[in-house]
Write a structure and sequence with these properties.
By secondary structure, the protein is an alpha/beta fold. It has one domain (2-144): Response regulator (Rossmann fold, 3-Layer(aba) Sandwich), CATH 3.40.50.2300. Helices cover 42% and strands 13% of the residues. It has six helices and four strands, in the order βαβααβααβα. A four-stranded parallel beta sheet has the order 2-1-3-4, with helices on both faces. α1 links the parallel β1 and β2 (33-38). α1 packs across α6 (125-144). The protein binds 4-nitrophenyl phosphate (4NP). The site of 4-nitrophenyl phosphate has 11 residues, from loops.
């Protein structure tokens, strides 16, 4: 399974989702690839936001070495599942889909719930961490239980 976590900036939410999913995948002994990207390009080349780095560290996950990159159409070919954080990300990514197969790979990380953007409200980093952690657990369960 190859999973790409996507948000707007790729510095707050999707780096957390990448790090948390990689952590859980390792704990479960799964051979999955997990990466992240942003639909915007403002922060390309930067490390994740310190709020995300700090909350992840608090829970034993190191995301400090990640580097921001922008989502590209090639990602539809390189990944099986594209998990977006909110409905705005969803429409941004779907607008780049070339066909129904591309579009079918894209969904919200959480079922019918958006992961709020902590960029403008720094009290949200920990709630976002916990939401993303649960979302990752559910995705692993969905794809490993028969
Ligand atoms: P993210 O948060 O999408 O969770 O990485 C944001 C980070 C930066 C910006 C917006 C959202 N920005 O406008 O620079």
């Amino acid at each position: 399974m190859k999973i790409l976590m996507i948000c707007l900036g790729n510095i707050c939410r999707s780096p957390l989702a990448e790090g948390i999913m990689q952590h859980q995948v390792k704990q479960q002994g799964l051979d999955w690839t997990v990466d992240s990207a942003g639909t915007g390009n403002w922060h390309v080349g930067e490390p994740p936001h310190y709020g995300s780095v700090n909350v992840a560290r608090k829970f034993g996950v190191d995301i400090s070495t990640q580097v921001c990159r922008q989502f590209s159409v090639d990602d539809f070919d390189d990944f099986d599942l594209l998990l977006v954080m909110d409905r705005s990300n969803l429409s941004n990514v779907l607008s780049l889909a070339r066909n129904k197969q591309d579009a079918a790979k894209v969904r919200l990380l959480l079922n019918n719930q958006e992961v709020p953007d902590p960029y403008f409200d720094h009290t949200q980093f920990e709630p976002v961490y916990l939401m993303v952690e649960q979302g990752c657990k559910d995705i692993i369960k969905e794809h490993t239980s028969r």
